[in-house]
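Fold tokens
===========
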Amino acid sequence: MRHHTTTRPRTTNERFPRRALAALALVTAGGLALTACGASDSSSGSASGTAQVTFALDWSPNTNHIGVYVADELGYFDDAGLDVEILPYGSTSASQLVAAGEADFGIAGQSNVQTARTAGLDLVSVYRVTQTDTGRLVVLGDRDEITRPADLDGRVFGGFGAPLYSALAEATIQGDGGKGTFKEVALDTGAYEALAQRRIDFTLSVATWEDLQTQIDGHPYQSFRYQDFGVPEQQSTGIVSSDAYLKKHPKDAAAFVQAVARGYAYAAKHPARAADLLIKANPDTLGTAKELVHRSAELLAEDGYLVSADRAIGAADPDAWNAFGAFLVKGGFLTDSEGKAVTEEPDWSEYYTDEYLQ
């Protein structure tokens, strides 16, 4: 296995917004019907018979990727006859790399797939890392005058240039009885610094990463979960492939997805050990963030993010795809391959598959 980690390490607080922009502002989706595993497999194997597979990260290695690194470190990919190359995050998003055939698999969440595939990109969700949405609307913990989303009316939102994220903030405020009116400043990775300096009043964060960092720093955010205020649920982090790859390599695809599922199942059962394996694989980027990695791994495992009592690990939640898809259509966030607004819901069942988990 050849490890590749990003040559552009970032602070832990930068991961979410850049990922959000890469995943949602730069790509939008559409594709072909899903391919059955019964098709012939034209594997790109080596002379030894080991299949070569590439996996694209969406940002610096973090706990969203923990199952992939566990699978590598514990030999699950070797057991499956795979040589998996982990591609570092760069200027091109994981979704774009996968859709273009430059990577076989990559990290991308539900809303990314729904926007991207609708617009014509060859992208399909094959594994869901988080079973529920990890996103949050956040303010500084010492802002005593702000106790609920409705208090954010008329204030300044540090956004990321993607309309969907503004809509999440607006819908959360309106769900609490507010008007959902605020001034937006597009700050990208500077949003957290601006929040700390009180140049903005609120922004978006990730409960399993940025929020934990503020707790470790002793200045925890006050956070509001979108779904507590009427925003539909979504499986916010996942693994994608393309119909083209799945059609050509169904056996390798199944081997990869099942090995990854073993990795995330291990992380759900042994979060501390999994955290150590993730750090071991990425000492340069995570060696100084051991407490954050361990607390994040524990939260993902103990709060039911990695597994659900209602379905197999990594399986899609059709209700979430349907409900959040309706939210996207109603909000006008979907365009087709010609850039025209989509007003009728696509068949969301074509956007994901569980067959490679079998």
Summary: The first strand starts at residue 51 and ends at 56.
